Amino acid sequence: MTGRTTGRRGSGKPTIADVAALAGVSVSAVSKVVNGRGGISAPTRQRVLDAAAKLRWSPSATAVALRGARTRALGMVAGRSSDVLATDPHFTLLISGIESELAPADYGLLLHIVGEEPGAEERAYRRLAEERRVDGVILTESRIGDGRFELLRSLRLPAVLVGAPWQPDPVVSVQAGGQDAGIRAAVDHLVTLGHRRIAYVSGPEDRVHTVFRRRVFETALAERGLRPGRVLVSEFTAQSAVAAVRELLADAPDRRPTAVLFANDTMAVAGMNAARRLGFEVPRDLSVIGYDDLPLGELVYPQLTTVHQDLIQLGRAAVAAMFRQLDADRDEESPTPVPDPEVNPPELVIRESTGPAREG
Amino acid sequence: MTGRTTGRRGSGKPTIADVAALAGVSVSAVSKVVNGRGGISAPTRQRVLDAAAKLRWSPSATAVALRGARTRALGMVAGRSSDVLATDPHFTLLISGIESELAPADYGLLLHIVGEEPGAEERAYRRLAEERRVDGVILTESRIGDGRFELLRSLRLPAVLVGAPWQPDPVVSVQAGGQDAGIRAAVDHLVTLGHRRIAYVSGPEDRVHTVFRRRVFETALAERGLRPGRVLVSEFTAQSAVAAVRELLADAPDRRPTAVLFANDTMAVAGMNAARRLGFEVPRDLSVIGYDDLPLGELVYPQLTTVHQDLIQLGRAAVAAMFRQLDADRDEESPTPVPDPEVNPPELVIRESTGPAREG
User: Fold this and answer.
1) Cβ atoms < 10 Å from Cβ of B351
2) How does pLDDT run across A278-293, given as a tens digit for each residue?
3) CATH code for the domain defined by B181-309
4) What is the pLDDT of residues A170-227, one digit of tens each?
5) Residues 88-147, chain A: which have Cβ within 8 Å of B?
6) Is the minimum CB–CB distance between A2 and chain B shorter than 8 Å?
7) What fold, for B73-176+313-330?
8) CB B115 to CB A103 under 8 A?
């Protein structure tokens, strides 16, 4: 009456305890072998693997068997400062989409905003895995040289990446098709309005999407026979957008840009108002285009022309992909294939912050 | 080797199992008695309570004993639609503050945005409690007639409310002192600028803070010998702010307000631009004041005069109060008193959206 020793698994499937018993080791030793953690001798490791094979305890069922019952939570770890939610509405919209898909399944999102200290993100993932706190994790902000996919595989923690991995990787990822459509449409729109000197204020170059979009911008200009526009790399903040605009507009009238693309809406709105304070009317003297299509863009005056990304739908797609992955792990006899969820490609929303180029 | 039956409690304190053994009942029966759930006869109930008393197993330690080890997560349930994060930056800032206090303690925030369906919020709390998924929950948006405090006590789930309870209640709550200071300073500022016809666009009247602030507004006007200004009740959305401004500015020039206070910044910015589209310059023809001091207010042109609330600090204070409460529960011999955390009172931030009243 002081505890329960029997599990509640209804099926006749082999358990980790069966593998441990057959191999003559502890459950935690089996766990260590499967998770690739240290402290297990090579012969013991072989015995565990042999036992697993004999019992047809398939590796694809491992994560679930180790986790036991579903936790009804997905995890999200942000190696960012805690004000990321306040300053990056992009992140917030994604979480809105995630929550809208989690709620009907009675799932919650366990959010860890761990700061930018090196190793903090990795420690958080290890703890989530060791304490079996979540069924899987959703990753955002795909980075160049990202080590998270490998780490999570070694932890046997299912993952879904929002965005594209930096190099070919088996991680499940969700992304809208036609990723280049937004920037291309923005450049087309400006060229049609007569702009020839178009600048781009990019985000930090350690992220996959900033590097990708910058290339799309440069390619789109080249394809239209335009000279490369100025590209300034910013920190994704309002302050850095203001600094960028000051730098761009300090150029001589026949050299300074007549239009600027910003890598997100917050920067675009900050840049628009910085221009106005310098005496440049938007769009009369300067056309401005943002990226993301946050609610902010409709609130300001002039309303912001921007590239719409369906971030809420992307958050939903990430959860759908995770659920499919978890279902597939659970039923290794007939794994459900995980199709790419449908998310609309980015598209240009034309409002008031873009207009005909002024004679320079 | 197939499981663990012994706990890991190092201290000599009595456990729920000791109480169950002495009373001659199961652990789950003790749990039912303590949680006030049904299915336990009166004599059995008495036996459990006697055993608890004999072993000095204090009710204040109950929640912790039932929960076992800390979960290293706090919960937050929002009975709102999943786009609340995208549309209500107030909520987002609070979460930023919460996360900044949780991260150093290796805690995460388990977020459930369950939609507005009746009963969904209650079900989520029940599940969090039954599955022991969190150490406690943080409550926001104190409502008139709020039933959450009682529910959480019956679930023995520690709670901290951000804001004031609707009626005297033992729930632990955090709030800045001088709650009326912000609206009072806003009215003073406008009166000093010569405004006599001041309107207020309030939020939904089922919330404690909206009703409170509306009263502060009305009192402040009366104290300055001004006639009651028009008060419009809105839905806290940009759309309802636009509708309110249209209604207010449709009045005859000698009757319409020369200044408007809005219950949040998003409404103020939307209202400001709606006025501009109707041909009213801000602040020349209309002064506008917001509430919250979101990053948005500094990005727009003119920059928004608003009441600053230290939402990040409020989120931090909520977590600090929760940790003190959990520590006190854990050590019933010398409970740490829970002091009110320090949060700065709301204060007016004067920017560009307010100016001298125009002759009407």
Assistant:
1) 17
2) 999 999 999 999 999 9
3) 3.40.50.2300
4) 999 999 989 999 999 999 999 999 999 999 999 999 999 999 999 999 999 999 999 9
5) 89, 92-93, 95-97, 99-100, 102-103, 106, 108-115, 120, 124, 127, 131, 133
6) yes
7) Rossmann fold (3.40.50)
8) yes
